[in-house]
Amino acid sequence: MNYKKKLTILSALVAVLALVYTLILFFDSDRRRDPSFAWLDLSLFDMADRMEISGSNGMVILRRINDTWVHPQGGMNFPVRQSRVEDFISTLSRFDTYPIRALSAEARERLDLGERSTTRIIVSGGAGLPLLDLHIGSADALGREVYLRRADSNEIHSGEDRFTFFTEAGVGFWLDRRLFSPSSFSDVQQVEVKLPDEESYTLRRSGAGWVIPESFEILDGLRVDSWLRNLLEAEAENFGIEEPATIEVNITLRMGDGQSKVLLAGPLDENNVRQVLVSDSSFVYLLSEGTQNRLFRDITSFMQ
């Protein structure tokens, strides 16, 4: 008898607990709503042709033209590192947990998620069709998560902060200021250099090393290879507007496939900056004094 009573009591207790759990699920909106989702559906991103990324360093605008992302400024479309755009889109489309933390207007203002919030990501497509309008607010007490809200919703979510890295980066982070398209220095077979002081010389690959063709003097191959790597991976400090009026530096790289890469640099300005043209691009680049010192080397730099 005692056994049956205990079993009855336990069964009733289980039923009560099940009912309580059901009621919690029903009345708790955070639990009823699946907190796992992605802010941007990748299928929608195929329609995107404009992004506005705003933070404390201002707004960066990116446009997609012929399936390539660029930065429009001053009537020109400057090149953008496509890999960084891909990382950004991967962050927005990542499926993660974003639980609801608040719903009130007071909370929106307190957490910097009001309509005037400065940190914001807008992705649009077609004739301005809004695909995503995401406000990014302040960080939590530990600084690991941020508060987030869609512009068309009162729901305030929290999630791991993968966003301010992009919104606070500034325009320089997005621009592709590499002088040359990616190439291996091992493809270079000959280099012809003319420097501002009228010094000219030629380097030619010979087996695993480098020589001066006229005298066949053997050079320090490691120094030549290091310089070529720096040259092919060099980045400008900024883009220029006007082409140089005269050319003082000419560096021509003869590649193994018969093609050439050419760098043409104008005279120094009052800030020791040179305007530069390269064969891989239609843009004008600005090289600082430090970059010039690494790239414009005389023949003695390669002697053994």
Explain this structure to me?
This protein is 26% helix and 34% strand. The chain has nine helices and 20 strands. It has helices at 2-27, 29-32, 42-45, 82-92, 105-110, 164-167, 171-174, 221-232, 289-295, and strands spanning 36-37, 48-55, 58-65, 68-73, 76-79, 96-97, 100-102, 120-125, 129-139, 145-150, 156-160, 188-194, 200-206, 209-212, 217-218, 238-239, 249-255, 260-265, 274-278, 285-287. The chain has a nine-stranded antiparallel β-sheet with strand order 5-4-3-2-8-9-10-11-7. The relative contact order is 0.10.
Q: What is the fold's blueprint, element by element?
A:
Blueprint: H1 2-27, H2 29-32, E1 36-37, H3 42-45, E2 48-55, E3 58-65, E4 68-73, E5 76-79, H4 82-92, E6 96-97, E7 100-102, H5 105-110, E8 120-125, E9 129-139, E10 145-150, E11 156-160, H6 164-167, H7 171-174, E12 188-194, E13 200-206, E14 209-212, E15 217-218, H8 221-232, E16 238-239, E17 249-255, E18 260-265, E19 274-278, E20 285-287, H9 289-295
Antiparallel strand pairs: 1-6, 2-3, 2-8, 3-4, 4-5, 7-11, 8-9, 9-10, 10-11, 12-13, 12-17, 13-14, 14-15, 16-20, 17-18, 18-19, 19-20
